[in-house]
Amino acid sequence: MLDANMRHLPKDWCFFVYFAACKEGCEPYKLGVRQGDYIQCQMLDETSENPHISIYVEGSAYTIKESGKLDYWCTYQGNIDGTGFISEHVRQLCSKKILNKV
Length: 102
Known about the structure:
Layout lengths: L3 H4 L6 E9 L4 H4 L7 E6 L8 E6 L2 E6 L6 E8 L8 H8 L7
Antiparallel strand pairs: 1-2, 1-5, 2-3, 3-4
């Protein structure tokens, strides 16, 4: 499930999320995402209803769609350009994970 802040980002926006939950067997888990991971993403849709996002795992982009289920929960952390972060510590962690500026 995607948090409300992320669901309203514009199409093609690049940002980071924190996986607060990621149950074994769900789509992100199968790609290698685990609870506690910070992951680079890109919004693929113009609508906030069940949006698709790309997540970048080990250098590869994968598309996931909002499922409405609680098998994963990711929260918006900040933008790829370093803005929008509440925590400087998290901003620094994420800046080390930038794969490309899509």
